[in-house]
C-alpha cells in the first residue's frame, strides 16, 4: 500500500500544475482525500510496526522457553555442590569456584550455535555494565559447531569473564546444566540461589529473593 501514496501524490501534483498553467483553481477532490487517508494509514502502520519491534525480543524469549518446556525460574537444591572447578578464561585469567565467592554473580551457560543464546547476549552485556554486575560466561564447545570467541566478545563486551570448555565439561556438570542457555544466580557465599532460561527472569527472581530476605 505504501507505494500507492507516492504515485497519487505525483499524479495530484501534475494535475495542479496543469491547472495552474490554465489559470484554474482546483478544489479538494476525491484524489486529495485519498492521499490524506493513505498517509494516515501509512503512519498508523509505522506506529504499529514500532510496537511490534519493541516486543519482539520479549516474545522470542518466551517462545524459546515454551519450546524447551521449562518454567521461567527454577529453585536450586540447598545441597547443590558445584565442585571446585578450575579453568582459564579467554584473557588468560585463572577462574575457579573461589572466583564466585565475595560478591553476587551471574553464571551463563551458552553454546556458539544456539540461536536462543544469541538473543541473551545484549542483556548480558547490559548487566555486566551495572555496578556489581559480575558475570561468568561458560561457552560449551559442542561438536559440529564452529567456535567464534571473537564474535562473542564483541557482543558481550570486555567486562564478562568468558571460559570455554567441552560440551558436558566440569563446570556444566557441577551446575547440572542440560539446556542452553541456562543462567545461575550465585550468592556472595559461592552457592547457587536460582536458575532460569533467560537473564531477565533470573534478575526478576533475584529481586524477589532480596524482598523475601528483607521481609524475614
UniProtKB/TrEMBL annotation:
<keyword id="KW-1133">Transmembrane helix</keyword>
<keyword id="KW-0812">Transmembrane</keyword>
<feature type="domain" description="Thioredoxin">
    <location>
        <begin position="76"/>
        <end position="208"/>
    </location>
</feature>
<protein>
    <recommendedName>
        <fullName>Thioredoxin domain-containing protein</fullName>
    </recommendedName>
</protein>
<keyword id="KW-0472">Membrane</keyword>
<dbReference type="InterPro" id="IPR036249">
    <property type="entry name" value="Thioredoxin-like_sf"/>
</dbReference>
<dbReference type="InterPro" id="IPR013766">
    <property type="entry name" value="Thioredoxin_domain"/>
</dbReference>
<feature type="transmembrane region" description="Helical">
    <location>
        <begin position="33"/>
        <end position="53"/>
    </location>
</feature>
